[in-house]
Write a structure and sequence with these properties.
Layout: H1 6-17, E1 49-55, E2 58-64, E3 71-78, E4 83-89, E5 97-102, E6 105-110, E7 112-114, E8 123-129, H2 133-141, E9 143-148, E10 151-156, H3 162-172
Antiparallel strand pairs: 1-2, 2-3, 3-4, 4-8, 5-6, 5-9, 7-8, 9-10
Length: about 170
């Protein structure tokens, strides 16, 4: 797999969310109420969504608020690689973990923290194959839960963006 660098991931995420140049004052995801059952569908947040973007053999799938730098999580890959690069804003506690859930499946991805111009505490970067059950559930259900120092945030696709999730994983292989 061709190494995807942090600037490339950030640029792809920025393009996919049409990010503005101003820093957001609210970059930490707000924890949402727990779901009744693992497969029940949580509700999307009105001004946040998943955005799929492809350029020059690279794809990204980023969750955040359009027209801002409020990005909660971004996944990127090379075409057909079967590998993902993940990044999220780092917490003040400095733990280089990306802890995800979807439909009862959970996975922790250990990475590293890198400095960032967008995020106060830097960003956590990690790698993973596309095959863990948490990604397969996400692909099927259209939502991921992100656990961090603030708690749990549900990143739910709006109906119009669910196709982008499938297209992203098909592209990645």
């Amino acid at each position: 797999m061709r190494a995807i660098t942090r600037p490339v991931i950030a640029a792809i995420a920025a393009a996919s969310l049409t990010l503005g140049a101003c820093a957001s004052t609210d970059t930490a995801p707000a924890a949402l109420s727990a779901m009744d059952a693992p497969d029940s569908a949580p509700r999307p947040i009105a001004d946040h969504d998943w955005a799929f973007y492809v350029e020059d053999g690279l794809a990204s799938l980023a969750y955040g608020r359009a027209e801002s730098d409020d990005v909660w999580l971004s996944l990127a890959c090379d075409r057909g690689s079967g590998r993902l690069e993940l990044f999220r804003p780092a917490d003040a506690d400095g733990q280089p973990i990306i802890y995800l859930e979807s439909g009862g499946e959970t996975e922790r991805f250990t990475g590293r923290i890198e400095p960032s111009e967008l995020f106060e505490h830097g960003e956590v970067l990690a790698e993973a194959p596309t095959t863990p059950p948490v990604f397969q559930r996400f692909r099927r259900l259209g939502w991921l839960g992100l656990h961090d120092a603030e708690g749990r945030a549900l990143m739910v696709a709006h109906p119009a963006s669910t196709d982008g999730i499938e297209r992203f994983f098909a592209f990645c292989g």
